[in-house]
């Protein structure tokens, strides 16, 4: 690998992808590997540095993840974070105390004193807030190390052995709540590991385009376009590389937002050089979904049918050139949480049926995080609103029409959702939300319109703010906006007579209703 690389060794902590993203933000390429990876593999990559992540265990648990101690003798700089720091200390002969007393556990924002002489903390204030999440703590550093940060409860909030370039922090520098955390990671990467920072999206595009051209040669390539960010950016990148040798098959299952299918078609046929095939198949999907109300069954049917349509199209065309997909890095990271041998299956990675023999598979975004994919999309000239669109579930409105999915109910939901979108955009609130949408819960209620009694559908509004979608807050949208949305939906969407707002956070709710 010619690119300078840092390895994030995953011990099962919850912020592992965040660590990797922070490293990439410093323009250093990094890969997450599970702690079960063989040390020979690490040697073969010859990384500029290694970061041990946190993890849920205590170093004393019999089942807790450990690593071959030889790693500390490779001469490669290592930064241990939280559990990673404790593991470093434990393996090298320091003392880790398994705290039974909650008084020494630290969770959340913690005032921390840093030693300004240490390379990780130089030019930073001597005190600051760090984000802690630990029960065990290091009571004595291993030989050769010195203590470089402390808190009121933690005698070793950071430690360093400059001679061996081994560093440990008990807190989480990757989390935004740690003041100057990114600066500390930057110092580790540049001042300790000697990284140059050559990971840039411009060079990524040039290199990838050249690779795709070489791989495809004069063959054809086909990509299943869903209209989501990942497959759209993959399509744009491959189109830049091989133009009309690319055919995008856009399966419009009729479960997208109002007018979205047309928007995707216009974008790709106008802005990019490629063959674009749109398959309109709402009827097929609806007939498969007839009478089905169970959410998981609906998801299954929609996912399976999407690829049935796609593969049938390929069979029809007889095209067996290359097959491309918009797999991104988080889709294929192996987890360090015990089942490390198994790569998570995800909707972005599909198996090709046995009767179709492609020349090979192309996944041009396989090493990128979502924010990097978006940067590439912008640079390739995809419209801003397509690149920055909110997440949309693979099964589309199929999981927002609760209960049976019918053409009529999809249309009600699309119309209500379009009004919500319109109002949120007009008042400038849309950009402040992580995600917002309308739901059709399948509840009918009594109302009065004009002088007549109504008995019609209820629409629910869902809006959340979140950093990572693992947890989310319901959004505090001003009442006036909610009021306008409600008025317009009831007046403009036939068969709706009531609107409610979902004020459930995640947990205990989820973002979607199904
Ligand atoms: P939940 O409902 O699990 O949603 O809190 C978290 C985020 O994931 C999106 N989501 C999906 N995305 N296929 C997807 O590609 C799905 O089946 C799916 N279900 C939920 C959801 O919109 C939110 O952004």
Describe the overall structure.
- The protein folds into three domains: 5-192, Rossmann fold (3-Layer(aba) Sandwich), CATH 3.40.50; 201-387, HUPs (Rossmann fold); 406-501, GMP Synthetase, Chain A, domain 3 (2-Layer Sandwich), CATH 3.30.300.10.
- The protein starts with a strand and ends in a 13-residue tail after the last strand.
- The chain is α/β, with parallel strands linked by helices and 514 residues long.
- Helix 5 (201-216) crosses helix 11 and helix 13 packs antiparallel against helix 14 (479-492).
- It has helices spanning 16-25, 39-45, 83-91, 181-192, 201-216, 229-242, 260-271, 282-289, 295-317, 329-332, 370-379, 384-387, 407-426, 479-492; strands spanning 5-10, 29-34, 49-52, 78-81, 95-97, 106-114, 127-134, 137-140, 146-151, 158-161, 166-169, 221-225, 246-252, 275-280, 322-324, 360-362, 435-439, 444-449, 452-465, 473-474, 496-501.
- The strands form four sheets. The protein has a nine-stranded mixed β-sheet with strand order 2-1-3-4-11-10-9-6-7, with helices on both faces. It has a five-stranded parallel β-sheet with strand order 14-13-12-15-16, with helices on both faces.
- The structure holds xanthosine-5'-monophosphate.
- The site of xanthosine-5'-monophosphate has 12 residues, from loops.
């Amino acid at each position: 690998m010619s690119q300078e690389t840092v390895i994030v060794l995953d011990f099962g902590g919850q912020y592992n992808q965040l660590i990797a993203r922070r490293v990439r933000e410093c323009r250093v390429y990094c890969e997450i590997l599970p702690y079960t990876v063989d040390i020979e593999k690490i040697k073969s990559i010859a990384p500029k540095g290694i970061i041990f992540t946190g993890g849920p265990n205590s170093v004393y648990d019999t089942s807790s993840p450990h690593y071959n101690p030889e790693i500390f003798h490779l001469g490669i700089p290592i930064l241990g974070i939280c559990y990673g720091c404790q593991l470093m200390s434990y393996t090298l002969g320091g003392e880790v105390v398994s705290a039974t007393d909650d008084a020494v556990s630290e969770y959340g924002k913690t005032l921390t004193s840093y030693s300004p002489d240490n390379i990780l903390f130089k030019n930073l204030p001597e005190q600051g807030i760090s984000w802690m999440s630990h029960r065990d703590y290091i009571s004595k550093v291993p030989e050769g190390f010195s203590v470089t940060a402390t808190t009121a409860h933690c005698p070793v909030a950071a430690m360093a052995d400059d001679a061996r370039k081994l560093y440990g922090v008990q807190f989480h520098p990757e989390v935004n709540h740690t003041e100057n955390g990114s600066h500390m990671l930057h110092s580790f990467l540049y001042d300790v590991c000697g990284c140059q920072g050559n990971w840039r999206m411009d060079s990524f595009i040039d290199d990838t385009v050249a690779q795709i051209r070489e791989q495809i040669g004069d063959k054809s390539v086909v990509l299943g376009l869903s209209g989501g960010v990942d497959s759209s950016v993959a399509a744009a990148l491959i189109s830049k590389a091989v133009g009309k040798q690319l055919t995008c098959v856009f399966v419009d299952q009729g479960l997208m937002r109002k007018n979205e299918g047309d928007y995707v078609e216009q974008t790709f046929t106008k802005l990019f050089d490629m063959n674009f095939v749109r398959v309109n198949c709402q009827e097929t999907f609806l007939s498969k979904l007839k009478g089905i109300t169970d959410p998981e069954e609906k998801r299954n049917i929609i996912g399976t049918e999407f690829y049935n349509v796609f593969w049938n199209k390929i069979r029809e065309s007889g095209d067996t050139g290359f097959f491309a997909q918009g797999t991104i890095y988080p889709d294929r990271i192996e987890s360090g949480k015990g089942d490390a041998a198994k790569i998570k299956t995800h909707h972005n990675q599909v198996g090709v049926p046995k009767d179709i023999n492609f020349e090979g598979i192309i996944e041009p975004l396989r090493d990128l995080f979502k924010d990097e994919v978006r940067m590439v999309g912008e640079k390739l000239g995809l419209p801003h609103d397509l690149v920055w669109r909110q997440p949309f579930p693979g099964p589309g409105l199929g999981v927002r029409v609760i209960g049976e999915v019918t053409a009529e109910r999809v249309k009600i939901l699309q119309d209500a959702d379009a009004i919500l979108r319109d109002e949120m955009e007009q008042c400038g609130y849309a950009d402040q939300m992580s995600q917002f949408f309308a739901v059709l819960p399948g509840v009918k209620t009594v109302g009065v319109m004009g002088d007549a009694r109504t008995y019609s559908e209820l629409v629910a509004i869902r809006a959340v703010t979140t950093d990572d979608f693992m947890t989310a807050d319901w959004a505090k949208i001003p009442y006036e906006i909610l009021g306008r949305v409600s008025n317009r939906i009831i007046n403009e969407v036939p068969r709706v007579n009531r609107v409610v707002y979902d004020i459930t956070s995640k947990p205990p709710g989820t973002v979607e209703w199904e």
